[in-house]
Design a protein that fits this description.
The chain is 34% helix and 13% strand. By secondary structure, the chain is α/β, with parallel strands linked by helices. Helix 4 (95-103) links the parallel strand 2 and strand 3. Helix 1 runs antiparallel to helix 7 (243-275), helix 2 (44-56) runs parallel beside helix 7 (243-275) and helix 3 (68-78) runs parallel beside helix 4 (95-103). The chain is globular. The two termini are 15 Å apart. The model has no long low-confidence stretch (mean pLDDT 96).
């Protein structure tokens, strides 16, 4: 029998971490109010949530959607991104960042990330810009704001749009400004795992009234502002949120400040405890990040410093100690069959589109940092960070224990 729980030793902890979603009487009452009002459809609650959430992130306008994926698609289309254009995105993100570009008939161009932040590397953006580039989508990965000073400077000097993928970043602030409202447009997700959730849901933020009206029209069957109901101006769809979703989100929003503060404090404790350990490096936080939502707490595991013991074994050992960590994305987005299966997928624009005229071949894309991070990353979910100081200390203790006894895993 070894010391590690995976080899029959005593576990660091038996107790479960907090679970998700968090709800109480606030959600119950809000849902009942909508139920009993008989007004279930796209009304007062949706408007109230749009206003409150936009104000929370410092934006002038908020347009809710059915989810974050369509929020991205509609943002791109509303900003005029379409056939013949390229859009720069990070290679380490959820697939929706890339598919939204394809759905807008444009071509995603993958840029590598910074190993210390998991965010797009601003120094690598310029070399990816061509005369077809129309927009950049910075993803605030795990809720950590991208360097928006750099992104804004690059976008300005090349005349590019910025559409922030803030799907993980409710409450995050760059130099005191709410993310998602720094670029031309920004989107958030309220899917079940997210830090405020209605099961599904999304929102687009912007400070530009015309863009806001266009986004609204696309989400609402192409209708015109203050125009007759059965008159349709754009090729829109029905991407409207319900009053039930908005009611839950309004209740969730009342808890967000407190939860952000708890996660930030716990993350600081984890950073302190984990950063000194052999073979572990924690994420770098730029001092200009004035608030961070922590949708994920991530660190990197360097097998080469730990006798070559693979990350998968480390994670199994941590799980056996009672710590629910996992690996995250298995590979950068461009390695998905959607991109590598050249010509054998459904035939759609844009990559094989005559408007494009380029010759994008995703099998030739190489982002070595993202590929390495996919092998090194260890993720903890946001609700683990809602635990107590003792819960965080258990995570640190388990990592210390596994690393001290790494020879048991060989
Ligand atoms: C970075 C990123 N962008 C966009 C989305 C899409 O959001 P949704 O799941 O609400 O469609 C997600 C979802 O997890 C995401 O992680």
């Amino acid at each position: 029998m070894g010391r590690l729980a995976i080899n029959g030793g005593e576990k660091v902890r038996e107790r479960a971490f907090p679970s998700w979603p968090v709800y109480d009487e606030r959600e119950r009452e809000a849902l009942n109010e909508v139920l009993e009002s008989g007004k279930w459809w796209y009304g007062e609650k949706v408007r109230e949530f749009e206003e409150k959430f936009a104000a929370y992130q410092d934006a002038n306008y908020g347009i809710t959607t059915t989810n974050g994926t369509v929020a991205l698609e509609i943002s791109l289309i509303s900003a005029g991104v379409g056939a013949g254009y390229e859009v720069i995105i990070p290679s380490y993100t959820f697939v929706a960042t890339a598919t939204a570009v394809l759905k807008a008939n444009a071509v995603p161009v993958f840029v590598d990330i910074e190993p210390e932040t998991f965010n797009i590397d601003p120094d690598k953006i310029e070399e990816a810009i061509t005369d077809r580039t129309r927009a950049i989508i910075p993803v605030h990965f795990g809720g950590l704001p991208v360097d928006m000073d750099e992104i804004t400077a690059i976008a300005r000097s090349h005349g590019l749009l910025i559409i922030e993928d803030a799907a993980h970043a409710w409450g995050s602030r760059w130099k005191g400004r709410g993310v998602g409202a720094i670029g031309d447009l920004g989107i958030f997700s309220f899917q079940m795992s997210k830090n405020i959730t209605a099961g599904e849901g999304g929102i687009i933020l912007t400070n530009d009234e015309e863009l806001a009206d266009t986004c609204r029209s696309y989400t609402n069957c192409g209708r015109g502002k203050e125009k007759p109901w059965y008159e349709h101006y754009l090729l829109g769809g029905n991407y409207r949120m319900t009053e039930f979703q908005a009611a839950i989100l309004l209740a969730q929003l009342t808890r967000l400040d407190e939860q952000v503060a708890i996660r930030e404090e716990n993350a600081r404790r984890l950073d302190q405890g984990l950063s000194g350990l052999r073979g572990i490096s924690v994420v770098r936080r730029d001092p200009r990040v004035t608030r961070r939502s922590y949708h994920l707490y991530c660190f990197r595991y360097h097998a080469e410093q730990l006798d070559g013991v693979p990350r998968a074994r480390f994670i199994e050992a941590m799980n056996a100690e009672g710590i629910p960590c996992y690996t995250g994305y298995p590979h950068p987005v461009y390695k998905n069959p959607l991109f590598t299966r050249k010509g054998s997928g459904p035939r759609y624009c844009p990559v094989s589109c005559p408007y494009y005229g380029g010759d994008m071949d995703y099998t030739e894309v190489s982002c070595p940092v993202a590929e390495r991070v996919c092998q090194e990353a260890v993720w903890l979910k946001q609700f683990v960070l809602l635990g107590t100081k003792e819960d965080m200390d258990d995570i640190i203790k388990a990592a210390e224990k596994v690393i001290e006894n790494i020879d048991e895993l060989r």
